[in-house]
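I can't quite decide. Please look over this sequence plus structure tokens:

:::
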Amino acid sequence: MNLISDQVDKKEIEIIVRELKKVLGNDVIGDVTEFGCYLGTTSVYLAKTLMQTPERSLYVYDSFAGLPEKNSKDISPLGVSFKAGELLASKKQFIKNMHQHGVPVPHITKAWFADIKPDDLPEKVAFAYLDGDYYMSIIDSLRSLNGRLSPGATIVVDDYGNAALPGVARAIDEWLKSHVATLKVEHSLAIIYVKR
């Protein structure tokens, strides 16, 4: 398994691909979205998996400007792990990485998650991967998915179990209070199953 960056590990990729394959195997209606693609490590594996189902598309969203500012819900007793502007990757580099790995370039929206417009999203979403690191990034991603998640859809969120990035768990726990879904945590990933 070839990883483009160290922001995701092999076990996480295995879990993400496994969950996507379950959704595809269950014929859940919709496309695949990724909020926070960085250099494209996860995107490559999502795209490779989708090559078996050409009727489905991958949509990725990233500022390509690095991380935004944190807010008070992101403060960790472990100290500061990231600063605004870190994890910067260009859209050009992302596309180059997709080409180098022999996978189709997905639909790309260059924007902060708060600025994603309804027209930037697929009608229906069967699977979503969220890697926003911070509370507002996760909340904004989830808001974008409102009304688009198909029954039986799965959302996988990175860093749920990461004490250095507590805003992720706060955002997910808050969202779950008002949505019919179940949560499973595996290898610091939140796996959310939307009720069928």
